[in-house]
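User: I'm new to structure prediction. If I give you an amino acid sequence, what do you actually give back? Let's try with this one:
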Amino acid sequence: MDSPVSVTVGVPVYNEEELIRPNTLQLIAYLRERYDRVEIIIGSNGSTDGTVSLGEALADEIPEVRFFHLPNPGVGLAFRRFIEMARYERLVSMDMDLAVDLSFIDAAVRRLDSCDIVVGSKFSGSQKRSRFRRLGSEVFVGLASRILGIEFADFSIGAKAYRTSVVRRYASLISHGSSYVLDLVYYVHRDGGRAVQIPVACEDYRHSKFNLGREAIHKFANLARLWWRRHARVT
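Assistant: Good question. You get back a string of structure tokens that encode the predicted 3D arrangement of the chain. For your 235 residues, that looks like this:
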């Protein structure tokens, strides 16, 4: 890869006191080996355990790490802050559990030279997750494809990458919840931007940090809103 290459990695966290330090150290070591300029922005949204103090300590200790805390849960609000804070044009979103293989970062960085969004898809790659979570995701993806006409197979928040200058145009449309990935893919696709999908390997048997019932209601309500905007031609 030609240098210099600069990368911002945004990591939302909610009550991750067990993982935030070891996984941040693993992630920064990986990035330093491969890129000329890097930063990791860790965004706590509503954490009530030791995540905040540990995140602040990491930011004091490691020059490339930046940390912020939002008092209420809202991963979409955390992502909006990533967009505001990012120093570099390549913005990669990863989960703190690093459930997706870190090679996604390299593949995404290469593709961001010629596209606006890179969707890492567990469904076109490989995944080790509970059958219940896989089924729920498959239903949502199938419905989104049918009613919005976008052929992507993963709208989870992790393993996605964006051109910062592009997604900043849509920052005001990002809601508090996790549907912002679908929103951004839909709006960028609608406006003639380019999104690509690449396979990723994922292993995640942890209990979800989200309330899955509330999350399902939020996602399907947001999907209905996008469908209405599409057919009403609302900008």
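You can read the tokens as a compact description of the fold. Here is one thing that stands out. The chain has one domain: 6-232.
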